[in-house]
Amino acid sequence: MIHTESEKRGWVVGITGASGSVYGIRLIQVLLEQGYPVHIVVSNAGWRVLSEELGWSVGKKEQVLKEHFGGLPGKLQYHPVADIGATIASGSYQVEGMVIAPCSMGTLSAVANGTSDNLMTRAADVMLKEGRQLVLVPRETPLHAIHLENMLKLARLGVRIIPAMPAFYFHPKTIEDLVDFQVGKILDSLRVEHQLFTRWNGGEAASRLPDGK
């Protein structure tokens, strides 16, 4: 569903301690650029990964978020992961849905088993009970049977599982290209329009076939 500017509801974006925090950061940026309100939840391990992978100074969390996202059209709201009384912990608070990118196996397990012991997992549980969109972006390899069983359990509940698996058919030139592909796939699932990557059009080989067959 596409909303007008005045009708846009917010999205919740969670960032955990799995590698790949850049996916969540880029997703937040694109949503804010399009004028969506965004609620951010970052786990304690997630802040550490932001520091180690992106070089963020995370001593003053709200300040660093303002430095990176300030000035964009959408409204940004940060919620500490321990704040279980935050708006997004209640099903009566209206949002479109939630994305956890990247999603650690620990968080995925907690969501799969209904363990709402912090705001991240509580907000995800709210998405499930209210029938709203929930997208998880696991970033782990290799995967063992428990990981796979938890993903299957969530998929059967309607959760979209979009692993961090970039494609190469569009001939990416930079790491940013690979990140944008992944974020674009997330946005496709949310039905949010974007132009982050070139879509497959059949390829050169297909265009050479007679009658396009």
From TrEMBL:
Domain Flavoprotein span(s) in chain numbering: 11-189
Record field: catalytic activity: dimethylallyl phosphate + FMNH2 = prenylated FMNH2 + phosphate
Record GO terms (molecular function): carboxy-lyase activity; flavin prenyltransferase activity
Pfam families: Flavoprotein (PF02441)
Top-level class of the enzyme under EC nomenclature: transferase
InterPro entries per record: Flavin_trans-like, Flavoprotein, UbiX-like
Keyword list, A-Z: Flavoprotein, FMN, Prenyltransferase, Transferase
Positions contributing to dimethylallyl phosphate binding: 169, 185
UniProt: FMN binding residues: 17-19, 43, 104-107, 139
EC number per UniProt: 2.5.1.129
PANTHER family membership: FLAVIN PRENYLTRANSFERASE, FLAVIN PRENYLTRANSFERASE PAD1, MITOCHONDRIAL
Function recorded in the entry: Flavin prenyltransferase that catalyzes the synthesis of the prenylated FMN cofactor (prenyl-FMN) for 4-hydroxy-3-polyprenylbenzoic acid decarboxylase UbiD. The prenyltransferase is metal-independent and links a dimethylallyl moiety from dimethylallyl monophosphate (DMAP) to the flavin N5 and C6 atoms of FMN.
Family: Belongs to the UbiX/PAD1 family.
Protein's name according to its UniProt entry: Flavin prenyltransferase UbiX
